[in-house]
Structure formats: C-alpha cells, structure tokens
Amino acid sequence: MRKNLRFVLSSIGIILFAIVAYLFIWGKLFPFSPIIVGFTKHELSNTIIYLQKGNSFTTYSWIDSLIPVVEKFHELKMQNRPKIFFFNDENTYASRSLSKARFCAFYNGNIVVSPWAQREAAEGKISLEIYLRHELSHSLIFQNKGILMAYRYPKWLLEGLATYSTNQMGTSFYPSKEETYDLIRRGNFMPPQYFETNQEDSVKLDTKYRSTFMYSEFACIVDDLIVRYGREKFLRYMKTLLSNDNHNLVFKEVYGIDFENYISDFKKIINKAG
Fold first, then answer.
1. pTM of the full predicted structure?
2. Does residue 227 surpass a pLDDT of 80?
C-alpha cells in the first residue's frame, strides 16, 4: 500500500514538474524562464537581446543606449540588464507571452516585442525607440520595486510616467496634451484609481482609442505635478512608492493634499483653461 502511495505521489510530482517546465520553456512563463529555446542571444553592455530564430532584425545595438536615458530621467539604476525578446512568429508570441499587447514588460523587468509591433515600426506607424523606452521605464520601476511587489505600484502612475518620460503624447495613436485636455473638457476622464480594476469598464469614454487616451491622461497628470510642484517633489513621490504601498498616504505626505482633491483641482484647472 505504501509503495503504491509513493508511486502515485512520485508520478504526480513528475507530472507537475513537467507542466511547470513546459510553461517556462514553451508556455506563458517564458519571460521568466532561465532557459531560452528558439532564440539567439546577443549580450550588450546594458541589455540582453534575444531574437527568435529567423528574425531579420540586426540593427539592435542602439537599444543599449536607451538605458542611460531612462535611468537619468527616473534617477534610478537598473538592478539587472533587462532581457528583450523580439518575436517573429505570432503563434509563438501568443503561446509564450502573458500579454496580447504590442510590447509588454514583466515584473522581473524582461520585455517582449510582438512581431506586429516590429512591422508597424518598419512601416513608420510607431516609433520602436519610443515604445521601447516606455517599456524600459516599466522595467526600471519593476526592478527597483522587486518582482514580488511590483504589481502593487500604482498602475496609472506606471503608465503615466512611461508615457510622459518618453514624450509619447502626440505620437502614433496617442493624443497630444492639447488633444487630451480637449477630450477631458468634453467629459472624458478615467479616475486614476479605477484603472485596471473592475470599476474601469463602468467609465464611458468617447475617444478614438480608449487605452492611449488613458495613458495620455495619466501623462498629463504627471506633467501637471511636475509643472506645479516641481520635478524634485515628483521624484520623491515616485520613489517613495517603491518602498511604501499606501499611495494616498504617500501623496498626502509629499504634496500636502488628498489625492482625490488634487484630481478634482486638476480637472477644474483644465475646464477653466478651455
């Protein structure tokens, strides 16, 4: 009886190990895997580039120069060289990425780049540099927050910071600052605390692209905080949240006003300016 039980438990353990190994090597945990299959590795000073076999993207060395730019703006340092994976097969991307987005940074700081993002960049529809800097902003925050706690960083601030720091407003599908203000005056506004929660879908937005409007809106909030209160205070707010998860408390301590009251004032200023 005991032998049969040991055999069953051993078999279950082997099956579970095989499932986990599969998920890391060929499945959804691929961006976290220490074993990379089907990609060629290119080690640079600040990044590690992985190209899926058959990918013709060879002019990748310039990506290394983005790291100092991102670090300088945030006044933070990467803890490890981020790994950036360039896929050239949509099925592989779908099976090995947790995201369906063009680009995605994961909590360990690694980044995946979809094949259609590379096509759009080649066609001039998007800027590969701007999008990569956006994701590297996320990577930098995640690395400094820590993989186990990275999910607790405010999602709206994460996107607003990345969009603002790359001057992404007004490029490709992102409305400019002026266009975003105009859309807000027309009644479009996503409460930052609703972003990526169950409450987000309850907010109706009459915009061409819902997600890029939200990102530009959050970038406008970052811009307003820097313009009205100064860059030094914003950096203190941004960095304190790396060690303190109580956003409202941190905001109140840094800016001397409740976050909800600040947002209310922000909207009033925009409406008056119109």
1. 0.92
2. yes
